[in-house]
Design a protein that fits this description.
The complex is a heterodimer. The longest helix of chain A has about 35 residues. By secondary structure, chain A is mainly α. Chain A has a domain of about 190 residues. In chain A, strands 1-2 form a two-stranded antiparallel sheet. By secondary structure, chain B is mostly helical. Chain B has one domain. Classes of the chains: A mainly alpha, B mainly alpha. Chains A and B meet through α5, α6, α8 and α9 of A and α5, α6 and α7 of B.
Chain lengths: ~475, ~220
């Protein structure tokens, strides 16, 4: 597991010594090692079962996350080779800066998902905020600096509140087991969960949800999200949207699981459910109005995070399955869409939807990927996200959340029309630019992702199904 | 036992002093004054933590107290000072909420915190000192949040965040006798790096917007 952290450190250390042209290939290779490590860990979990240590742990919940971080990380680094090739105007030092912060970002995310200690988890998630700030302000223009400022202030504020929540949990635990590093260990807390003071857990859950919910972009706390996603360089937008937000969701799930084991009941479920519902509805209002396609995708990220929270809030086995599957589907699909939008941005240098027409003539292959991606991201069959969204709605109706389910369905259709209107306007009609050359490293990762979401959508491998099943059993189902 | 009681009173007094400096922040309109107030506030926090060692007999707290002193009372204020020296302060930025109302709001925050904590934590806290300090900590947290939202100047917002963070550390000291050392060191590291990065970002804001007024950051809208 340490390999995951080491590769990122090596990536940072070699940066000053190598010319950028060689460097970017080596960086991608290092990420491939991480991907291979993930496959190895997958196998070892299957044969050896979960492992809970003082500092690190490996069980089915965080294996899903390790999978997402390493896969998307590898594909994004591959994509960056082509993306930065197109950004010729940037200086060599600037490009090295890009890789420095990106590696620091990946390092903190790997630390976040493999640590077993809630305190270290907090340190890691704050580190992700810090390492992405300068990536958001990367282009140093007015809007980028503004987005970075909003991001660092709001997220630091939120995460500081989450620290208070974690301290409250720790307070509850040391009354039972005594002070020490072990009392922040997730596995230890789960074992004594039923004895922790319930009032304390309730207050702590609010703090944690407000804190990590800010980072995850749940509705009333989402203000930084569209700005940051639209201003960051596109590989970073993809990483933030599909990996960073999933990691915040992961921390919420860990703490949610403690509360489930403690038997807090409907209180936690309903909080999550309505926050999710609100996020979906807000996204449904903003998506048809967006004039900037990266912002539009950012709002769609908010929608997906809303669906995740909503389906966890329902609390049945199917809905949790839908949520974890949705996590994987969101990561793959959103990365595809951001990569597509990045290819458009880097060739045409505009983010405005109405300035772009006739993409099929300008960037034919990108246009093909984006066209299919629009259906994938709005949850149309045969793509993977369809399975997750369909299961969410089904379990909502089954568990008696009638009007909530209907509202979500209404939100989905608004979002679908918003997407189709904006993107098909961009794809068809008279081209507004002449044909541009597409870089092969921009296309390869998009192709891989498209094959993955169609393949998994039609046929979900048993290994993944079992992994999600056992993750749900670890989290705990509503009683 | 007599010694113990007077000690606990002194700890409470120091904690209250750091709340006082936090409230004083809301009345500061000049950057150097704000930084000085923050220094004193961190100093009071670090003395509180140091004295708590003799109350709880938990020696890991000494390291936390020394770290607080080094990072929050010496390093961060110095970095901030360096930043403000380079930025020429030529404008008076009107706050969203003026100073008189700010003090009034802070009074309500303090009353609310003491009221809320006296009810909620009655069942779980073991000592009355713990409870009082926790109430003070929560009050500092809210004052920090208030500073972040009620002030337009970028640097004062950063100090608001640092105040909030001080409140959380004070809360951790009073309730759980400080977090485990490795976590605490991580928290200090993050806060330190965060403060420096926010400082650098303030430079960029000054460069691109030619002002420290964050209400001018309004290009990104739907």
């Amino acid at each position: 597991m340490i390999t995951l952290l080491l590769t990122e450190l090596i990536g940072i250390v070699i940066l000053p010594f190598l010319a950028f042209n060689k460097n970017r290939y080596i960086q991608a290779l290092l990420q491939f090692i991480n991907f291979a490590t993930f496959l190895y860990l997958f196998k070892s979990l299957k044969t050896n079962g979960p492992y809970y240590g003082t500092y690190f742990m490996l069980d089915s919940i965080n294996l899903i996350l390790i999978g997402i971080v390493s896969t998307i990380g590898f594909l994004t680094y591959l994509y960056s080779i082509g993306y930065l090739e197109k950004e010729k105007q940037l200086k060599e030092t600037k490009l090295k800066e890009f890789y420095f912060w990106t590696n620091a970002f990946m390092f903190s995310m790997f630390l976040l998902v493999i640590t077993s200690n809630l305190g270290i988890m907090w340190v890691a998630i704050e580190a992700t905020t810090l390492s992405t700030t300068f990536l958001i302000s990367f282009y140093k223009n007015k809007t980028a600096v503004e987005a970075a400022w909003k991001y660092i202030m709001l997220c630091s504020l939120g995460i500081a509140l989450a620290l208070f929540g974690i301290i409250l949990i720790y307070f509850g635990v040391i009354n039972i087991t005594g002070a020490g590093l072990g009392s922040l260990n997730w596995e230890n807390i789960i074992q004594v969960a039923t004895n922790i003071n319930k009032e304390l857990l309730k207050i702590s859950f609010i703090f944690v949800l407000v804190g990590f919910g800010t980072k995850m972009g749940l509705a009333p706390l989402h203000f930084w999200l569209p700005d940051a996603h639209s201003e960051a360089p596109t590989p970073i937008s993809a990483l933030m949207s599909s990996v960073l937000l999933s990691c915040s969701f992961y921390v919420i799930i860990r703490i949610f699981s403690i509360d489930v084991h403690a038997g807090l009941g409907n209180y936690i479920y309903h909080t999550l459910l309505y926050m999710g519902l609100f996020s979906i509805m807000l996204a449904a209002v903003f998506i048809p109005r967006s004039k900037d396609y990266k912002r539009l995708l950012a709002y769609s990220t908010m929608e997906h995070m809303g669906i995740l929270a909503f389906s966890v809030g329902i609390g049945s086995f199917e809905s949790l399955f839908a949520s974890l599957l949705g996590l994987i589907a969101h990561a793959l699909t959103k990365t595809l869409m951001f990569m597509g939008s990045g290819s458009i941005l880097v060739n045409l240098h505009t983010k405005s939807i109405k300035d772009i027409r006739g993409l099929f003539a300008i960037l034919p292959i990108t246009a093909f990927f984006v066209g299919l991606g629009v259906f994938a991201i709005t949850g149309a069959p045969p793509f993977l996200l369809f399975v997750s969204e369909f299961l969410t709605l089904l379990s909502a109706f089954k568990e008696g959340f009638m009007w909530q389910g209907i509202l979500v369905l209404f939100g989905f259709s608004l979002i679908f029309f918003g997407f189709v209107e904006s993107f098909f306007g961009m794809l068809t009609k008279e081209p507004t630019f002449s044909e541009k050359k597409e870089h092969v490293f921009i296309l390869i990762p998009m192709g891989i992702l498209l094959v993955a979401i169609i393949g998994f959508g039609l046929f979900l491998p048993n290994d993944i199904k079992n992994l999600i099943d056992s993750a749900i059993n670890t989290i705990g189902v509503k009683r | 036992m007599n010694l113990n009681i007077s000690l606990s009173e002194f700890v409470e007094f120091m904690a209250a002093l750091s709340l006082f400096f936090a409230i004083l922040q809301t009345a500061s309109h000049r950057l150097d004054f704000a930084i000085k107030t923050y220094t004193f506030q961190s100093l009071a926090l670090s003395i509180t933590m140091f004295l708590s060692v003799f109350y709880y007999f938990d020696y890991e707290l000494i390291i936390s107290a020394v770290l607080t002193l080094l990072i929050k009372a010496i390093l961060i204020p110095n970095v901030m000072k360096k930043i403000t020296e380079k930025i020429v302060e030529d404008e008076s930025v009107k706050p969203f909420i003026n100073f008189t109302y700010s003090i009034l709001i802070c009074v309500f925050i303090v009353i609310f915190s003491f009221y809320a904590m006296s009810n909620t934590f009655y069942s779980v806290s073991s000592s009355s000192m713990m409870q009082k300090i926790l109430a003070i900590a929560v009050a500092i947290i809210f004052v920090g949040i208030f500073l972040m939202f009620a002030r337009k100047k970028a640097l004062i917002q950063v100090i608001g965040f640092l105040t909030l963070e001080n409140g959380i550390i004070l809360g951790a000291t009073s309730t759980v006798k400080g977090l485990p050392l490795i976590v605490e060191v991580g928290v200090f590291f993050d806060v330190f790096v965060g403060a420096i990065m926010a400082g650098i970002l303030i430079f960029h804001i000054k460069d691109t917007f030619d002002s420290l007024d964050t209400s001018k950051l309004s290009d990104l809208k739907e």
